[in-house]
Write a structure and sequence with these properties.
NERD domain-containing protein, NERD, 6 helices, 4-stranded mixed sheet, 6-stranded mixed sheet, alpha/beta
Amino acid sequence: MILTDYTFRPDTDSLAEENCADVARKLKQAYNDVQDHIVINNLVVDVYDRKITVDQAVIHTYGITLINSRTLYGKIEVNYRQEWSRSVKGRDIPLENPTELYKHVSKALRDYLVKHTEDIMSKHNGVQKNFDGLPIELMFIQAPKSSLQGNGINSSNILFSEQLIQTITRHFNSYKKRVYQQFGGMDVFRFMSSDMYACADFLLGKEIDRESYPVAQPEQMTNASQSTTYKPAKRVIVRTKRVGGGPGVIKARDIKPSRKKLSAEGGK
């Protein structure tokens, strides 16, 4: 589901907007009709005394993915001091380290959600989860025909837009698989459907209206909330008869071992 559409930002470079628009288009194609993924474009997060715009955020059942798609374009170099710069017409212009910036964004976002847990998370079976174990993935989209050179660059979360949907899906499936592998999923963070939509609306400053949200899917429901029909067991009655007639009573002292057991003991 696309909660907020992409909007052009005139204060940024045209190459940055082109890359950001391409990412937004791919996210819309993949998740426009999907209920367990919510896409937010231009999410504003308060980081200390600054307001940082996250280009795209994807909220799904098992966590949140923050995407930076407006920074990595052109020729970027990182020196041994981890100082970033972009070469523009032969001049090196200082560039804020996006990976370090988004670490602060991730922490600020988690702290903000933890602070408002009671407003977002509903109680299930009398238990209210918190956001301490919420996975927040960071991804940085490199524009086509751009270069990134330097030492100490963590390239594990730097990818091209063609790899984005596949990477999000891989992370989603890995967390989903853990639900059925470890302790019945007790250690895996999971959004209920209403909580996931409530979180998205809360981050955008909208009113939380749980009645308008989709109902929880079967795999999102807790075991106690699932309606399971149990078939009552049948009582088994053993009836015996006496030799002379009438109902018989079996006593423990009258029970004798079977012939197979006697033959096995005799053979030892």
